[in-house]
Predict the structure.
Amino acid sequence: MTGSSGEPLPAGGFTADRLHPSQTTVNLRRFCTAKPINQMRIHLKTLGCRLNEAELETWSRDFESRGHQITPRLADADLVVINTCAVTGEAVRKSRKLLNRAQRHNPRSKLVVSGCYATLNSNENVRSLGVDLVVDNRDKERLVEIATRELDLHAMPEQATTPGESSLLSHGRQRAFIKIQDGCRYQCTFCIVTVARGEERSRPIDQVVAEINDRVQQGFHEVVLTGVHIGGYGSDTGSDLYQLIRAVLERTAIQRLRLGAVEPWDLPENFWDLFENPRLMPHLHLPIQSGADSVLKRMARRCKNDEFQRLAEQARRRVPDINLTTDIIVGFPGETDQEWQQTLAFVEQIGFGHLHIFAYSPRPGTRAALLPDPIPRDVIRQRSEALHQLGERLKQQTLKRFSGRCFPVLVESAPADPASGWSGYTPNFLRVSIPLLPGSDLENQVVDVRLQQLTDAGDALTATLEQETRF
């Protein structure tokens, strides 16, 4: 698992912010009422990866099917559900802060937590953070069922939603995350998530296809396949990622299919042939973590830099306009100045369209936490800043390369500031800004645009509409 089995996401409302417990669930306070409780208002919150987001979406749908209402306001909630993260020390800090905030701003609500931080520290959560229920990662798929039973969260049947309904679009979500598997069989020395998530478990292809068809019925034009280790999909069922993608393209009408992070050594045979179908978006997030083979060896990674270089060349040869992005860990134990310079040179050589940069922090329970020669924090900060500057320059080069081209863009939620215009993403995941036209409502529409020039911030391209909306 990398820091980007889904990429870390910023904290936010329901639309997403970003050691083995002896018990699967821990219940502090049971609420045993004599009659069913009417519709409850439920506030969902997540930190971390796209997989956490996919799980949150599933919980939202399950709560609504049981007759409850999803609310974006913490203060209004009767029940707060938080999906925590532990991929870095900073993620742990944010998880604790989120739990404290929930207690402080709505002490009357019931609090349910799950995710990697909650799983690895369930006793601490229960003892010190006012949690009513901890659901271990192994039981995440049953979280709504467990919470309903343990906290007596029953709603009247007539309040339940029908299967075709979804509140995600009403909450400003135009991209649905589909969980295809959980767990990872690899043991990268820095990764605590393999401890928290356990062995690989793949969802059946029919089940994934059915969920995507439901999303199409609900009005979604784009889905993202996500998991802890999606390249390992099917390792436990005799299938593989190629078969799953082919089934989704053949058996669903989803207009835009994206992949979450895929380990570069995991791409199945004939993988590039899948991109002959234009509905598979030409963007791959391939975590490399370091540009020095000696560091990759200490990380127990399974891809050397020359192998990654050949993979990038093959991708660009087979898939026109493909955008390659990656993860880099800065300050891994023992990282010398020479190794760091190798990383900078490698990143520039590949020409990534975007970097997810992680400052290394030791995670108890990982092999890397025991390695000698930790890097001083001020050195990590300096190296991170240098890499951020390089990453911004490479991103702008990537954006400029597509200036003047036409692409279909999925427009996201309505702009909070009219001056900022509409925003969305091209198939190869370039962010664009479209001027706000009087009387126009482009939300959740796929529109053809012509890309113009860099925005003032330099992280997107301005664009003008080419024709009427497609959907």
